[in-house]
Amino acid sequence: MGKIKRTNDKINKKNSKENNKGKTQKGRKRNKKKIRLKIILTATFLIFFFLVGLFLFRWGQNGWGWQGFLMTIFGHSSSTVYDLGRVNVLIIGSDDGDQADTVLLASYDPRMQEIAMLSIPRDTFIGEDINRAAPRDRINSVGKNPEAIMAAVEEITGLEIHFYVSIEIDAFIELVDEIGGVDFYVPIDMNYYDPCQDLLIDLRAGQQRLNGAQAEQLVRFRNSNTGVTFDYEYGTYDYGRMRTGRDFILATMQQTLRPENILRIRGILDVMYGRVTTNVSLATARDYIPYVINFNDLTILSNQLPGESKIPNGSWVFIHDPEETAIMVREMFFTFEDRETVEDS
Fold first, then answer.
1. What's the farthest any 2 CA atoms get from each other in the chain?
2. What is the structure's pLDDT at 49?
3. Alpha-carbon separation of residue 208 from 33, 115, 136, 184, 186 (angstroms)
4. Is 14 exposed, middle or buried (0-12, 13-18, 19+ CB in 10 A)?
5. Alpha-carbon distance 233 to 240, whole Å?
6. Collapsing DSSP states into helix, strand and coil, what is residue 107?
7. What does the alpha-carbon distance between residue 239 and residue 230 come to, in Å, rounded to a whole number?
8. In whole angstroms, what is the distance from residue 56 CA to residue 61 CA?
């Protein structure tokens, strides 16, 4: 019996050692897992804090504020702006018809922080013989073809136009509503009714916030039913309409580019989707956005194509003045260095 007992004790001790050994191995494995997990978490936190620190460092280099924030997100440095050139963009506004209602040449120089806007009258003559001028010879006669309008404006101004943006009036109206309206000074009382177009314009002069429907009335007004229009100094009839349009576009840009509207970017994109035709790539837009966001710091040049309206062949057309146009283009769209080069040549 004693011998059997000693044998059982040996077996129990052996089993106990094996169990302890198994527990020790499992414990070591758990410890190794814990150590690996701690290493991974520590490395993750270190990388995270390093990236946050690097982002804050670059943000500080680019300048605290929304501009510096966007520059940092897009991978820009303080020297990036010097690599960006002036960009010329043709803005085309159209209604439900087949013709462009608004033609506007806009230019932005991020280095000089300068925006230039030149209105091109929709009746601008682009034909070959002024004595045979007909409606088909107006710039809006080419329809909504952005490339054709670009070619015509390049011929008139001598400028290379890099991009175009064609926007429908409905999208413009919805954009104004999406950003909560636009604060604008209406220059005169605007009263007009056209039953054929089902168009009613009823605005009072003065500073006010315009919604989308009121914005449409504003940019379409030329004169009242009794012939009352803008004063001569402001620009009468179509000239006044173009000036009001330029001023309102600038006001809309200024109020759209406010930092708080970043939260509305989804709604803004939804408004624009499908109703804006453009050849501006996302990469190009991304490069310029951080600089144009400081809208209040921009120098703004605004004017209309020089020339006069005539009826040479029974059709009302606008004939631009080539010499005055060349001078205006140089003053509005060239940098100081380019102006000096052109003047020397």
1. 136
2. 74
3. 67, 25, 39, 6, 8
4. exposed
5. 9
6. strand
7. 9
8. 9
Residue whose C-alpha is closest to residue 126's, from 142, 136, 139: 139
Separation of alpha carbons 118 and 104, rounded Å:
6
What is each CA distance from 90 to 25, 75, 292, in whole angstroms?
A: 74, 28, 17
Report whether 271 contacts 178 (CB < 8 A).
yes
Which residue did the predictor score with more confidence, 20 or 129? Answer: 129
User: 100-109 and 114-119 as β-strands: parallel, antiparallel, unpaired?
Assistant: antiparallel
What are the angstrom distances between the C-alpha of 259 and each of 69, 70, 256, 288?
Answer: 11, 11, 9, 15
Tokens 């209602």 correspond to what residue? 101
**Per-residue model confidence (pLDDT) at position 55:** 63
The letter for the amino acid at 337 is E
Q: Is the dihedral of CA 202, 207, 213, 219 positive or negative?
A: positive
User: CB neighbours of 40 closer than 8 A, spacing ≥ 6?
Assistant: none
β-bridge pairing 163-168 and 276-278? antiparallel
Exposed/middle/buried for 12, CB within 10 Å: 0-12, 13-18, 19+?
exposed
For residues 104 and 91, is the Cβ–Cβ distance under 8 A? yes
Q: What is the DSSP letter of 125?
A: B
- What pLDDT is stored for residue 212 in this prediction? 92
Angle made by CA atoms 105, 325, 139, in degrees to the nearest 5:
55
Query: Which token pair is 269?
Result: 């994109």
Q: Which residue type occupies 214?
A: Q
Cβ–Cβ < 8 Å for 319, 333? no
SS3 of residue 151 by DSSP: helix
Side-chain-facing half-sphere of 188: CA atoms under 13 Å? 21
The DSSP bridge pattern shows strands 199-203 and 190-194 to be antiparallel
For residue range 64-87, what is the model confidence (pLDDT) as tens digits?
666 666 667 667 776 677 778 899
pLDDT band at 97, cuts 50/70/90? low
d(CA 75, CA 254): 24
- DSSP state, 128? S
Taking residue 216's Cβ as centre, other Cβ atoms within 10 Å add up to 19
